[in-house]
Amino acid sequence: MKSLKIFGFIAIVCILSSCEKIFLEPKPKTDALSVFNEYTTLVKEKYAMLEFKGVDIDFLADSIKNTIVADLNDEELFNKLAIITTRLRDAHSSLIHHRNGENSLFAGFNLLEGYPSGFNLEILADNYIGLPVNSTIKTLEGGAVGVRAVWGVLNQDNEIGYVWIPSWNEEISDKEIEQIFSDLKDTKGLIFDQRLNGGGDPSLATKFASYFTDKPVDTGFERFKTGPGANDFSDSHVILQPSSSSNKYLKEVRVITDRHVYSASTTFLYSLDSINTIKTMGQRSGGGSGSVADGYLSNGWYWSLSTSEFIDAKGRHLDDGVDPDIAVALDLDDISKDEVIEAAILDLQ
Amino acid sequence: MKKLFLGITLFFVGLTTTFSQSSKSFFMELGGSYTTFQDVKYSTVSYSGVGGAFRLGIERNTPKAIWEVGLNGNIGKESPNVHDVGAVTTINPKVYSRYLKKVNDQFSFGAHWDILGLYIRKTDGLDNNGIYYISSSDLFATGIYHKGKWNLGLDLGLLSFQKERMSFAFSAPQKGLEDGAFNYQNEALESPFGFKYFTLKPIGKQLYLRTHIQYQWKERIAVGYRWRARRFTEVKNYPVTVGEHQLVIRYNITHKTKPSTAQN
């Protein structure tokens, strides 16, 4: 009996040590049809805005599937999948042949197409924030465009402050944020320039937004895909909590937008949308309200998809962008002024 | 839940201070590992690769019981099994404790508690899904068979208190999203140690098995083989599987033996 126990124990140890691979799902196939099916299943199960975007994924997949034959080359297969990607009209959703490869095949949505430019750096620098024209301007150096933040008081009205955050995809410390708002606290109104800011870290955008309120703000809700079924969503109602800082800015603010305003910049916009002291001005924003998941298909192609959608406190779907409260166009032929900033100054006076 | 952990901690601390010792070792282990991972929520592609494993611990061995506390972990690189992009770096440190009662000269049974472990994966080329983690506290029933210079062990996962960063479709815990708790000011949701969004996984809701075989080569040196496999689901029908093999050499940095004076 004792020997049996010992043998049994040794047998269990040896058998269990054999391999965890018995628990794994089978290796996926990588032929053209399998990759196509894998991608369409991902879109169907994970993409959160099929209804809002008016995409019948089953119909779309079926209509393409018949053209997927075994001898398709990589580019031909990519172009078939790209039909689905582009149909989503969502700059967060992309398909890339080689993520880090040069001249890689790319499928996605160009959100700037059809929109005139709403921003010109030369006009801004030469008339408002360049040191030769404005000695009050301070900057945080670094980042992809050379500065992470620009702020100061505008010469055009010595009581109106100005902040430009070119990207949320940078590190801006709590201390630096405090410095910005501390420097601007005595102004009578503020222009917060969001133009060119295509997003980055939504947490940073939310941190900035929290300086513009002294009470919790209902901003709307984010609908996340939480399962494979068409109705497997869960809503997170989002309340913006005010910053604990003593340098909160509770006076009038004009947020300037252009079509580049996307992703985390949309997070910033919807966070402020219900605050009475804040209006948006400029051009329709880019949108990109969803949170994004990404991964690789079985053949190594990179995919990204919006797996949530944000619906703001006014019930608006934000993913295709929203029109500003006050629409103002930039005249690129007149380099002596930025019409949007000028309109914002007038509105704050 | 905090009270439960405090109670278990006090239980182990109590154990380590109430019985007399006949040997005490402060040891380290170094070796290699071969790890495997698959998250069906995102793909049936599995990842595997090699890395290094380490362990630092203190073991007391009395005629009636064995206890051990320590830190172990591994660092490795994994590659997907069907394509060549998106290499993964894995890091998996753990603080653990175990206590086994000697039933006779050959068998010991008890409990092993991975007090806190963090399993991190960083995938090249991914953005939001680039960082995956499971933070967990895991309790096992454990048994060891002793035969001469050989020790053979088996751990069966009884209960895990864990948080997986990746939900069905986004890099936030499934529980947090299902609870409607997502927002960018909710730090507990993002933090690996935001216990509010941990879930309990008792045996039956997950499979967590480990084996270990050790051969005492010399007084201070032993060689060992460890294996573990863990399979669980946060989203039904979309399991996560983690596997690991380790081959290690153990060296007793200090090893003190005393005549037996065990009292419990």
Write up what this structure looks like:
The complex is a heterodimer of chains A (about 350) and B (about 260). The radius of gyration of chain A is 25 Å and the shape is globular. Chain A has ten helices and 14 strands. In chain A, helix 9 links the parallel strand 9 and strand 10. In chain A, the strands form three sheets. Chain A has a seven-stranded mixed beta sheet with strand order 3-4-5-6-9-10-14, with helices on both faces. Chain A has a four-stranded antiparallel beta sheet with strand order 2-1-12-11. By secondary structure, chain A is of the alpha/beta class. Chain A has a domain of about 160 residues: 2-enoyl-CoA Hydratase, Chain A, domain 1 (Alpha-Beta Complex), CATH 3.90.226.10. In chain A, about 45% of the residues are buried. Chain B is mainly β and about 260 residues long. Chain B has one domain: Lipocalin (Beta Barrel), CATH 2.40.128. Chain B is about 10% helix and about 60% strand. In chain B, a hairpin with a 2-residue loop joins strand 11 and strand 12. Chain B is globular and about 60 Å long. The two termini of chain B are about 30 Å apart. The interface between A and B is large, with 60 and 61 residues.
Characteristics of this structure?
heterodimer; A: 349 residues; alpha/beta; seven-stranded mixed beta sheet; four-stranded antiparallel beta sheet; 14 strands; B: 264 residues; mainly beta; Lipocalin; 3 helices
Distance between the termini of chain B: 30 Å
Biggest sheet architecture of chain B: 12 strands, antiparallel
Q: Using DSSP, what is the number of strands of chain A?
A: 14
Q: Could you tell me the mean pLDDT of chain A?
A: 93
What is the strand and helix layout of this fold?
The complex is a heterodimer of chains A (349) and B (264).
Chain A lengths: L1 H15 L15 H15 L3 H4 L3 H9 L8 H14 L6 E3 L9 E2 L13 H9 L8 E4 L5 E7 L6 E5 L9 H11 L4 E5 L8 H8 L7 E9 L7 E8 L11 E6 L6 H9 L5 E5 L9 E5 L5 E5 L1 E5 L13 E2 L11 H10 L1
Parallel strand pairs in A: 5-6, 6-9, 9-10, 10-14
Antiparallel strand pairs in A: 1-2, 1-12, 3-4, 4-5, 7-8, 7-13, 11-12
Helix pairs in contact in A: 2-4, 2-5, 8-9
Chain B lengths: L1 H17 L4 E17 L7 E15 L3 E16 L7 E4 L2 E9 L4 E17 L7 E17 L2 E15 L9 H5 L8 H4 L8 E4 L3 E11 L4 E15 L2 E20 L7
Antiparallel strand pairs in B: 1-2, 1-12, 2-3, 3-4, 3-5, 4-6, 5-6, 6-7, 7-8, 8-9, 8-10, 10-11, 11-12
